[in-house]
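Q: What changes when adenosine-5'-diphosphate is included in the input?
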Amino acid sequence: MSVLRFDNVSKRYSSGHEALSEVSFAVAPGEMLFVTGHSGAGKSTLLKLIHLSERPSRGAVLFGEKNLLKVRGGRVALHRRDVGVVFQDHRLLADRSVADNVALPLILRGLRRGDIGKRVRGVLDKVGLGARAKALPTQLSAGEQQRVGIARAIVGEPRLLVADEPTGNLDPTLSAEIMALFESLPERGTSVLVASHDLALVKRMKKRVLVLNQGRLVDDISPEDLAL
Ligand code: ADP
Ligand code: ADP
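A: The predicted holo structure follows.
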């Protein structure tokens, strides 16, 4: 059983531009993989179909046994609990502490204060920010800010984590650190799908790589092939 499956998915925007054309692939539980391709290849669009910021024009996106076409209205918010999202610009609340930013998804789903505190501390330790819980995002470095974004995305223990160019604003050393952090997540059973145009960085990770070119899935490279 896959966590995520794209079945001949196409996406045509109202402008008439076809951003994805007949894309099919499946992601296994606990798998980490990348989607790469030049700017405009369709990476963001692919991720948007997963967290329901966009809808396919043709084909089906399946999350577990659920066809996302049928997830509408109030169920969209429920679906998003199962999918953690990391953005390039991390989208943190500037006037809230690191801990408050990370707590937000748990507050929204009505967890008890004590439970929230425990889980936020646990996840901040996991991303190496246990000592910065009370800081404001603006007091952190770019790499630390992205760690907060990742902590917020995983605090609800989603089945799938998707990240859109999570290292786009970081230098090579910090990028490698962030990638290593993603790599540690599948141990907990969370599948991880990272979109990045940085092919060199992606190849170093030695994971499965989906390659998009003008909306078409032109390659699906296994880790074994990358090792050659
Ligand atoms: P990538 O993330 O690989 O850079 P995107 O998925 O953002 O690619 O975009 C794929 C193509 O679809 C691009 O040509 C882009 O301009 C176009 N596109 C993206 N979003 C929209 C939109 N809302 N309306 C029309 N075209 C869009
Ligand atoms: P991202 O790649 O992270 O989606 P972009 O800067 O490419 O960020 O796009 C910002 C917003 O503009 C997105 O919501 C995207 O869907 C939309 N967009 C991107 N390209 C186009 C386009 N050619 N026409 C209309 N909207 C677009």
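Observations recorded in class: The beta strands are 4-12, 18-27, 32-36, 58-63, 66-67, 83-86, 160-164, 191-195, 208-213, 216-221.
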